[in-house]
Amino acid sequence: MKKSLQTLFTLTPLLASEADIQLQTCYGNPHEIIVEGRILEERCFRPSSLMDSWLVNGWRKLKQLINDEIETTPITLIIEEEQYHTISDDEGYFRFQIHNPHAPWKPHQNIMLHLDEYNVTIHASAFIVEASIEVGIISDFDDTVIISGVTNTLDLIKNLLFKNYKQRTLVKEVRDKILQITQAHPKTPLFFVRGSPRQLYGSIHDFLNHHHFPKRTLITKKAHGANPDPLFDQLRYKLEKIEELIRLYPHIQWICFGDSGEKDAKVYKTLHQKYPQKIRAIYIREVESGELKSLL
Fold it and tell me: Are residues 208 and 289 in the same domain?
């Protein structure tokens, strides 16, 4: 056992260093922006490979889930020379929700995040959806664009913990449908609303990049820390997150993708009943057959 652990450390080195600002979401409209992330001890993993063993994948995933957060640390957001301040919570998470009544922010607004205590700065581009955009996409992730086996606990654990993003299976039909919509409607905003913890944020984006998904925003669950999202109530969690998008973008009609394995159909039907003019189409992938069905 000792020899195996030594081999794992050799295959997947983890180097602790200075503070790292992990930016997770950065989106909004011309007069409101949401910026969320986490402050962690900086670490470095070797790139994933198709040849990685289940043991290496499991070790890497464990290290992603168990983070060395930097808690209660001041962080500054800078937009157009204006400064906004907050403090990370006891799990290192931070959130800014900034209202701008003055000149509208640009479609790809430059922002900067800075940690005074560690002299660490990152630059990013906020995704600002213009008022002229009429169509948007909201999609689930597990068993919608990636095979996860959510309805089978053993398959879910095997896929989640013991395969890396290069070894996971794409749902090509859903990916191609999303690409078709984004090509027909330029600048279409794409949001993935997933009920998994934020610690898996990086591997999700790696998978989406690997399979050439268009630019998107990923919304994941804050499972702990101050003001956590509902841990087990997926219906409430997804309704809250999608209603926030409907509020932020009142001019958009949404095309929604999900699967039959969880509560996606119920979520989207509930939203369609409440906001009939906001939900343009609903597509549900049947987990058993793999068929993509239209509910609207």
Answer: yes
> 3-state class of 152 per DSSP?
coil
Query: Total structural domains in the chain?
Result: 2
Q: What is the pLDDT of residue 44?
A: 67
Contacts of 104 (CB under 8 A, 6+ apart): 30, 31
Query: Other CB atoms closer than 10 Å to residue 87's CB: what's the count?
Result: 11
Statement to judge: residues 171 and 57 lie in one domain: no
The mean pLDDT values, 10 residues at a time, for the chain of 296 residues are: 36 53 94 95 79 84 77 95 95 94 89 94 94 95 92 84 92 97 93 86 91 94 82 89 96 96 92 96 94 93
The pTM score is 0.88
| Domain around 91 | 2-128
9 lies in the same domain as 84: yes
Residue 185, helix vs strand vs coil: coil
Claim to verify: residue 95 and residue 186 sit in the same structural domain? no
Closest CA to 41 of 26, 63, 56: 63
Given the structure tokens 């398959």, which residue do they identify?
155
Decide which of 112, 128, 144 is a domain's last residue: 128
